[in-house]
Amino acid sequence: MDNNNNENSSKQKTTFTGNIGYILAVAGSAVGLGNIWRFPYLAAKYGGGIFLLVYLILMLTFGYAMIVSETAIGRMTGKSPIGAFTSFGDRKWLKFGGWINAVIPILILPYYSVIGGWVVRYCFEYLRGNSHAIAGDEFFVSFITDSLVSEICFIVFVLAAFFVIVAGVKNGIEAVSKIIMPLLVILALITAVYSMTRPGALEGVKYFLVPNFRDFSLMTVVAAMGQMFYSLSLAMGILITYGSYLKKDSDIEKNTSRVEIFDTGIAILAGLMIIPAVFAFTGGDMATLKAGPSLMFITLPTVFDSMGFGNIIGSVFFLMVFFAALTSAISLFETSTATISEQLKLNRTLSSVIVLVVSLLLGTASVFGYGIWDYVKIFGMQILDFFDFLTNSLMMPISAFFICMLVTKVIGFDGIAKEVRLSSQFRRQPMYYAVTKYIAPFFLMIILASSIASTLGLITI
Ligand code: PHE
To answer: Which of 70, 262, 332, 374 could form an SS bridge with 109, CB 3.0 to 4.6 Å?
Structure first.
């Protein structure tokens, strides 16, 4: 894909050199902070086992259908989201559908990089041998409320992603992540086994794996759905763009299953590292379980510190998380850059500078929202949490809805089936139809309505 660097992306015609290049890029985009940081805290907060169950069902039905649709649309049109939507006509809703897909990554990248900055700080502190000082609540809280230090870490992370994009070393990074990812799995496995065997941890394993229907709420579904989109990098043009680079003989169905298994496997492992540890170290205190975005940054250091060589394990672990986050940020950066260069007819470098500036501005607002601007609340949320909510709970259902409409009303199921069948058997075709035509649009609208109603305080979910 790197040969495209200096071209306007609408003219990009190069394909991935092989299936493995595609899988690496998609898995690199999918596996990131969403799996290691976001999934465990949402699972802890929204019901444990019941959240996991709902998540798995959604992933195998909605997730599957969405990946197949996006990849097929991308491969069939050879374009990124706006171009792909409008290649079926210039009706207003098609334009809108393309745009909303394209805008989401531009809004996610800034706050994603803020969390990436937190990871940078943890890498740095572990490398300096501060494992002991990091374990405990105070370190994290005083860090994120210190706007200057958080800002510096955030800038380091954004610049790293920017550098990869302009220097065109993306393939190198993807090759590195081929080594990093398996290592991350091994280290996560060791830590998960360690967490699960602490006294009192079994309750946590049970809480995370065994569904308890009493913990179910509408919010479980809303959060699980948002997380599924986020984790698989769905409904934001990324898979359309990557699909446009895919060769006609690559098996879409098989690739989809592989990415789903890998992505979900890592999320579950992260849950097993973190949730049992909360029970072992704090007795399953509800306030800790519901801690939200801080959960990983508070629980894991406690675990590492108690393991013995905390500094070594902490350094290696957070470095791997850094790489996983970087590959995801690169996909966000890449898609945003492609959209800007395509729409404003600018060259790649200038477009990536625009993405950088927007990220710096919006990201800084998110950093300050936890620090010197902590009095700013948007619908009761801090700035970073608001961006997360806006993109995942409001915009993504809309964007996914438009993808379903594009498939059912314009391309038609036969069109999609023909594209998928070029290389796959399309065994799950009946399920794909049912989900895309009836179940998904209905559910997406319910989820959107309940997100809006709860933000406005009309219902409590
Ligand atoms: N899927 C990535 C993760 O799990 C995050 C991401 C979201 C990446 C959206 C690209 C687009 O961390």
So the answer is: 332
Considering Cα of 81, then 401, then 270, then 27, what sign does the dihedral take?
negative
What pLDDT digit, counting tens, does each position of 121-172 carry? 999 999 999 999 998 778 999 999 999 999 999 999 999 999 988 887 667 6
CA 112 to centroid of ligand 1, rounded, Å: 8
Picking from 45, 5, 58, the residue whose alpha carbon sits closest to that of residue 295 is 45
- 304 in Cβ contact with 314 (< 8 Å): yes
Q: Coil, strand or helix: which one is 91?
A: coil
Question: Residue type for 137, please?
Answer: D
What's the gap in Å between 210 CA and the centre of ligand 1? 27
For residue 373, the one-letter residue type is W
What Å distances lie between residue 284 and 289, 293, 396, CA to CA?
A: 7, 17, 32
241 lines ligand 1 (CB under 6 A): no
Q: Which two tokens stand for residue 328?
A: 């995801």
**Dihedral sign, Cα of residue 143, residue 146, residue 151, residue 156:** negative
